[in-house]
Amino acid sequence: MRILHTADWHLGHRLYTRDRTPEHRAALQWLLRTVEEEAVDVVIIAGDVFDVTNPSNQAKELYYEFLAGLVKTRCASAVIVGGNHDSASLLDAPRGLLRALQLHVVGAAHTDASERVLPIRCAAGELLVAAVPYLRERDLRSAQFGEGSTDRLQALREGIRRHFTEIAEAAREMRQDPGTPIVATGHLFAAGAADDEEKKSYIYQADENNIEAAHFPDCFDYVALGHVHRAQRIGDNDRIRYAGSLVPLTFVEGQASRSVCLVELGRAGEAVRTRKINVPAARTLLRLHATFAEVKDRLREAVRELPPPPALQPWVEVRIKTDTPIPNLREKLYAVIREAAGDTPDAAPVDILRISTERQTARPGGQADDTPRQLDELQPVDVFEQLCEREAFPADHRDGLKNDFRELYNWISEQDEA
Fold this sequence. Notes:
Blueprint: E1 2-6, E2 14-15, E3 18-19, H1 21-37, E4 42-46, H2 57-70, E5 77-81, H3 88-92, H4 95-100, E6 103-106, E7 117-122, E8 125-130, H5 137-140, H6 149-174, E9 182-187, E10 222-226, E11 232-233, E12 240-242, E13 258-264, E14 273-279, E15 285-291, H7 292-304, E16 315-321, H8 329-341, E17 351-358, H9 380-391, H10 395-417
Helix pairs in contact: 1-2, 7-8, 9-10
Subunit structure: Heterodimer of SbcC and SbcD.
Domain Nuclease SbcCD subunit D C-terminal: 283-391
Keywords: DNA recombination, DNA replication, Endonuclease, Exonuclease, Hydrolase, Nuclease
């Protein structure tokens, strides 16, 4: 049986206010072709279908266009679970209709575990999917009066592990043939996972040790994870994996290929084979972090190496190392681009989305890179942490304030989603 594991689509995402719809459309069209070419039996989308809980009509249209295209392929079924960016109610609303098309949606974990064990049948055999979406705190526990942040964090970890144990037991009870493989999904940060520094997770107080590979029950032949945008395995085998994001969400992510994971399953307990398939980049994201002269040279190279149509116009993020102000910086950089293009096109062949500077040498008593980040580069928790640092609170007081703020921020986000 062949499973295509993908996650973290973030439909509707904008990069510095720029619309990503053409990139997402190209990636989803490629995904449908890959399903056909690889003779995929089941598609699993492990959370964060959308970028926000109230996505645009255009983002929802992309989602339903993909599902409509999927039912026209030879793929027998799909399982879609909600992520922390998704509205569970929005995903679940059409689940009755989608179920008739063998498209199974689990937006939230508010039902009994046995109701989220999905039997999937296809020409290659039968499969059970233990569908675990993003687990919100209300799905795991009730707050206890007077508990500290450490107690709360430990209770969350225990709740996550208990949840996977319960759904594994439900899957074992439902399995009639002991040879039927069981696949689980999850949307969380597992211990040992690595992601780009600029993509921080504030789920469970930004904890990166929610669950370890050894805590996933042995009956799971494969665990399809989402939330971490870098494709990787967890532990020492290939049965627990992150597929990574479908398109790069930041310029840092744009420096590495995005991918999906093709999983080949046999009978329960047999070795699992996985293969990473890179997603073709519809748009180049160029990240230039150098001196002014070096940035100009790189821009000239980018113009000379423009990808042929139908590739989209490359986007560039520029951060120039300089100790002196450079007047009319944007105009000077675009002049370099137009000069390299050899003519005067109506639109520049390369578009610069952000320009910033940083010092090369340290100010007295400071560091070389002490240029403050702009507000739209920060998450709310980043801003609060900087405020705590500025006020010079004692370390224990500061850590407690940060944890309390993260808890409050997560609670507000969940209330907005509900």
